[in-house]
Design brief:
heterodimer; A: 172 residues; mainly alpha; 5 helices; B: 208 residues; 67% helix
Chain lengths: 172, 208
């Protein structure tokens, strides 16, 4: 290659920088804002999905533990009353975690499918009913209290799942 | 060239979090660099504007992945190169090979002479401006792929192996494209300086 041509090629690097049209700036900045908003929304839903999965796992783990406990020999364990109390307080802790999970979720949207709204209201009514019974003298018996609280955990779990599915339906 | 001395990872993080001032700072610092790169590679203002927008959106989406290697400018440039190459691979890209924007090498020379004349003297600055325009138009007249190879190899310093990988082709594909492109550029820029009997292109022999 001749020196002259090589010199010309070296001039490629010295070509002046070009300015994009000024009208383009607001367009690109708007696209950047949308991308940032989408990214944040995705991160939020990923976080929520992880929390919901954790809640479901806790619930499933508790149910498994309770199921396994049904098959254990009472004689090899602590006294029945203590065991029942421990199981009960485990369940109370689980419902508290699920309550926290629900509080983290965005408020239910006004616009939602009637079936979903009806399911949510039904689950909340059942929880309220259990709470009322738990506070009454009828729930003094430990086994009964534990059964009520177990029901409450299951219903709370269902409520978390429904609320999560409902809120996801509005992402896109 | 655009500098990024005041652009750091914190600003990138703010941009990712939706801070509009950070978006504007990023855009103003790097838009000319990205637009120039895209325009030189693609030879079309409209395509360069598309790449500009796509690149900045990608910057926001992938800000979390930035690890500081090569600085913010180098990272954004790599994103822009990938976007420009994606554009080249798009089936919508026309495969123009003739004169671009109605200006050919002869007109480039005319511009050079006019620039020198307007300045009232044949000094270096006016002459250099004309030569740059001539070179830019000769580059724009190449085929899209050849132009991209010339730019990546000659200006951005990519090796044939890297160019082949970026384009999803072989190393020898890049060498061949560069050799042909240099032949065309030589004919346009220095028609009296070789033609078909010119020596083999140094770009091919200098394989890295």
């Amino acid at each position: 290659m001749s020196g002259r041509f090589e010199d010309r090629l070296s001039e490629l690097k010295a070509l002046p920088e070009l300015e994009p049209r000024a009208e383009l700036e607001p367009v690109v900045l708007a696209a950047m804002s949308r991308a940032a908003a989408t990214g944040q929304s995705r991160s939020y839903w990923r976080y929520l999905a992880r929390v919901a999965a954790l809640g479901v796992a806790i619930g499933a783990g508790a149910l498994l533990a309770m199921w396994a406990a049904d098959f254990e020999e009472p004689s090899e364990r602590t006294p029945v009353a203590e065991e029942t109390d421990a199981a009960y307080f485990d369940l109370v802790e689980q419902t508290a975690q699920l309550e926290q999970l629900l509080a983290l979720m965005p408020a239910p949207r006004r616009a939602m499918r009637a079936g979903t709204a009806s399911t949510i209201v039904g689950l909340e009514d059942r929880i309220a009913l259990i709470d009322a019974v738990l506070e009454s003298p009828d729930a003094a018996e430990p086994e009964y209290r534990e059964a009520l609280m177990r029901d409450r955990v299951e219903i709370m779990n269902a409520l978390v799942n429904v609320r999560y599915a409902q809120s996801r339906a509005f992402v896109f | 060239m655009s500098g990024d001395s005041h652009i750091d990872e914190a600003l990138l993080q703010r941009a990712r979090d939706g801070d509009r001032q950070a978006h504007a700072a990023l855009y103003r610092a790097f838009a000319p660099m990205v637009f120039t790169l895209a325009y030189r590679m693609l030879g079309s203002r409209a395509a360069a504007e598309d790449v500009l927008q796509d690149s900045f959106v990608e910057v926001i989406r992938n800000a979390a992945a930035f690890r500081g290697d090569g600085g913010v400018a180098g990272w954004i440039k790599r994103i822009a190169i990938n976007k420009a190459l994606s554009h080249l691979r798009s089936p919508w890209v026309s495969r123009r090979t003739g004169a671009v924007d109605g200006i050919d090498a002869w007109q480039g020379r005319k511009l050079a002479e006019d620039a020198a004349e307007r300045s009232g003297r044949s000094d270096d600055q006016a002459y250099r401006l004309g030569r740059q325009q001539e070179l830019a138009h000769a580059l724009a007249a190449l085929s899209a792929t050849a132009r991209a190879v010339v730019w990546l190899h000659g200006v951005e310093g990519y090796t044939h192996q890297e160019i082949g990988r970026l384009m999803g082709r072989s190393t020898s594909f890049s060498k061949t494209q560069l050799s042909r492109a240099y032949g065309e550029l030589r004919e346009r820029l220095d028609p009296m300086d070789g033609g078909e009997e010119a020596e083999p292109c140094l770009g091919v022999l200098k394989t890295v």
